[in-house]
Amino acid sequence: MNEPNTKENAAPNANDWGSRIHVRTLLLMAGTVAGIYTCYQLAAPFIPVFTWALALTVLFAPIYRRFEKKIKHPSLTAAMCVLAAALIVVVPVTFVAQRILGEAVSGAETIKAMIESGGWRRVLDAHPRIAPVGLWIDQQFDLPGIINNVASWLTSAAASFVQGSALKLIGVVLTFYMFFFFLRDRSTILDTFRSLSTLSKADMNLIFEGVSDTVHATVFGTFTVALVQGTLGGLMFWWLGLPSPLLWGVIMALLAVVPVLGAFIIWIPAALFLLLAGSEGKALLLTLWGAIVVGGIDNLLYPMLVGSRLKMHTILAFVSIVGGLIVFGSSGLILGPVMFTVTRILLEIWSSQNKAEQAEDKAG
Question: Domain segments of the chain: what residues?
């Protein structure tokens, strides 16, 4: 009688890739990856909403904890924080945005009329020292055409802002809707992340603290520097007798939030306006003040307020913010630094684990 084939009758080996256990594991992994990718595609349009809701949650969490001890009702406390955030953020931004567009359109129309009437040439001709500059500009550039294009663009931008108000309103409502649940259920959300992560609780807490510090540093640091720049610019506008110094100071502060732009977009045209109006001294003073004081305060304050807390080199902090804005849009102001911070912490964890393993090998 032939002996039975031992290979065929042997029990399935758990280490065999063709075993039922490994096939089941691979199918589970594939389904999980496919599910995560599908969920990412579904959530991708809401990344700005999640980002700003996260930023508001981090910023208002201390206030929420303080009120929660007295009110003892999580939902009511979260609702109060949402209402406070709406009053602090939405109302001023909406008002300023409308004023900016209105002033921009009005200013463009005024400059357009001045260019078309040739008034700027008469101003330059009255000052022989700068008249050649005006002649060169007139020969090299089609100023009426440029101003017409700018005025048309600003007018269409204002119309688009009004037409897109409904969509912007939906985005704002969704942001505060997410903010409410992020704030109320933040402990549950953090515990969920801890349970899903392979990292230890201490490592996960390190990541959470890093994200919180990054959001605080980015928001408070960026807006503090922008506020200082806008204040300095507005004070100089007031001292020089330029119109609407408060409004232009606010606009300079808002533009200073974006690293690629800045307050110079306002004070450079203002200096040119003073030059064309025959106030060479005021134009020179505004230029020096804008370039040295308003522009220089950024390099002085930003590393102090942001760089040290982010534990990043100034170049990395700049790349994280500007790169984030390019990749993610306005939400990149938060997402860029957060991505850099999480990556830095993960690399530090990896490095510490490698050092611990090397120390164990040496001890063994």
Answer: 47-185, 196-356
